[in-house]
Amino acid sequence: MRKTYGKVLPGMKLNDLSGKLIVVEGTDGAGRTTQINLLKTWLEEQGHAVLDTGMTRSMLAGEGIRRAKEGNNLGRVTQSLFYATDFVDRLENEIVPALRAGFVVLTDRYIYSLMARAIVRGMDAAWIRSIYSVALVPDAVIYLRIGVDELIPRVIFSRGFDYWESGMDVFPGQDMYESFRSYQSALLAEFDKLSVEYHFETVDASSDVKTVFAELQKKVMRILEGDSRKEFVSKLYEQVAEMSQLRTEAIFAAIPREMQRTDLELLLRSAAANEASGNGRNVA
User: Fold this and answer.
1) Band of the pLDDT at 281, cuts 50, 70, 90?
2) pTM (predicted TM-score)
3) How are strands ordered across the β-sheet holding 104-108?
């Protein structure tokens, strides 16, 4: 049976979540999205049903978060609650149903990024942890770790600096480059603490994409080797067979007794009919 970090959402059952929940964590520019796309394709080729999800993809709150961040004036408490709403909505309507159906769920960041961002912005750590205590404990958290010096060139030569990812709301007196360095350094320090507390599996994300992917494949394969979904599928087949047997018995019971035949008689009649049909074809 799955566990949460303290609380269970009202009405949520945890005893039939047979899928696997795999989290890929790390700062922006660490290569999370690239690796999740590779993992999804690879897992599907292996015959696994896969759901990938991530921050701000909630139908309830995702678009609202994106619009709120466009103005660069989103308060810290509001931001924390907005992201918590996004997470809980995806947990209840995406992650849990997919796990119940036996999917492998790949999530691009989880509660750890949300906690790290909030704590770096000065939010109370205990309060933030209490908000996310409804989160399911994942089967694995893979932390793509990259230092600030390796991260900066990636950001510069890809999308450039962003107001929020540069922490301009945290370090408003600095230029964007210095603010980015200060903010990402603070995030890395918080991630390192969380990695110990929540037992992350750390992968050096400064290597090339192929090398990092090979490491992720090994870790994911180890998780799937103990896949409980085999037992789940076996039980599902047993339930289908049992339901089929019950339907057959119900149909047979509905036939008047004088019209019922023994199994032996039915077999003999079937054999005779097949033989007659075969003889007829041979004569023709």
Assistant:
1) very low
2) 0.78
3) 50-54, 104-108, 20-25, 140-145, 201-204
